[in-house]
Amino acid sequence: MTTRTQLHINGEWTAAADGAEFTTTDPSTGAALGTCAEAGPADVDRAVDAARAALADPAWASIAPSARARLLWRVADLIEEHEAELAELETRDQGQPLGVAHAVSVTGAAEHFRYFAGWCTKIEGSVSPVSFPDTLHYVRREPVGVCALITPWNFPLMIAAWKLAPALACGNTVIIKPAEQTPLTTVRLVELCERAGFPPGVVNLLTGGPAAGKALVAHPRVDKVSFTGSSAVGREIVQASAGNLKRVTLELGGKAPSVIARDADIDLAVAGNLQGALLNSGQVCAAYTRLYVDRRRADEFTEKLAAAAASLRLGPGLDPETQIGPLVSQEHLDQVDSYVRTGEKQGAELVTGGARADGPLSNGNFYRPTVFGSVTDDMTIAREEIFGPVLPVLPYDDPEELAARANDTEFGLAASLWTRDLATAHRLAADIRAGAIFVNMLPIPDAAAPWGGYKSSGWGREMGPYAIDAYTEVKGVWVHLGDS
């Protein structure tokens, strides 16, 4: 049975102005899940007008910070009340195993709203000791304005929350546009925001394809865009936002190196890198996708990694025995497979995997976890973001070469280090140019810590106090206190 969802504009659920719709499907079976309204130019204009009007409405503009905090806290409570429903919906629409949907997606979404609820009463200005005599100078933090929040398909609920919560905490109004592949939990999240009591026009929802996102980015009455997705689309957003020089935050692609030092516990490193590379079937921007292993231990590491990868159970996310779910779409599966074929052509050793799952899983987008050995830095699978269950192992001889090799990429979102030596950990953490370094652990962000990348991995930071900077403007006020 499929559901039908609508747009949410100015507090009302409505069909698209031209009646257009699209279908979202279950990636484990290909079956239709929902029919969703597809926003067009008229809907974008209506949503922007509603958000602009709500920005000046005393019901939102003059609300006390403590009352704004209670609204966000209420959303967190509602997410937890509907945890089972949201997790199942996320799994059906995106494909991730139900355990990941519970522990990462739904729990993370609630925690972001709760964390930023605490910030509402702590967004402070300051007094500056300016050098002009008889002059008071103070700083105000004010909302940026109307924010377009454009989210990807890999963790739709959690990423929507980590944009929506700080934007609202800072007093902005928003238009959220989820990826067309996975809109359903975002629709449900907006329903919960409505139940929590946000005034009309504060939270608006547009579902649809890239055209709706492009219209939001180019719209002259949108003040800010926050986007998570590919670096190629991020560059397009930078160009399209130039019309009114809107503020832009970008969390883009990654090609995270994982360094397995000679002294590392190999079994611990195998288990950690397997999880860090294959979480959500490798559809994670911070997934470990270049595994640098000391050459004297590379064969042992590769053999154990391949055996562990081959033993993982593929299946639908709702099956409690599933360890690896499907890729999000047939199109994406074909792209991942093309990278694997390129790896073989360029001389990488295919140790395990490298094929679509057959048999009972052949109707879904299942791809077997794939391990490559004898990979070199110039190979495509070591340089481009695959965003799938592909693990290239790259041997190294001299630890002194690691930082340079890890940094030899256009990306800089995350990196991982596996070592028992604190000096090695701290030295490499300082030398590798990436926004987050994980030592002996998985690449899962937290609401309190900054998240974002160097180089082509994006602009700005989300989460923690850095998100407050991203969603506020700073205004200086000068007051002459002397005789006029």
UniProtKB/TrEMBL annotation:
Q: Which residues form the Aldehyde dehydrogenase domain?
A: 13-476
Supply the alphabetized keyword list.
Answer: Oxidoreductase
User: Would the keyword rRNA-binding turn up in this protein's UniProt record?
Assistant: no
Q: Which residues form the active site?
A: E251
Keyword Membrane (UniProt): no
InterPro entries, sorted? Ald_DH/histidinol_DH, Ald_DH_C, Ald_DH_CS_CYS, Ald_DH_CS_GLU, Ald_DH_N, Aldehyde_DH_dom
Q: Which family does it belong to?
A: Belongs to the aldehyde dehydrogenase family.
Q: What is this protein called?
A: Aldehyde dehydrogenase family protein
**Which species?**
Actinomadura litoris
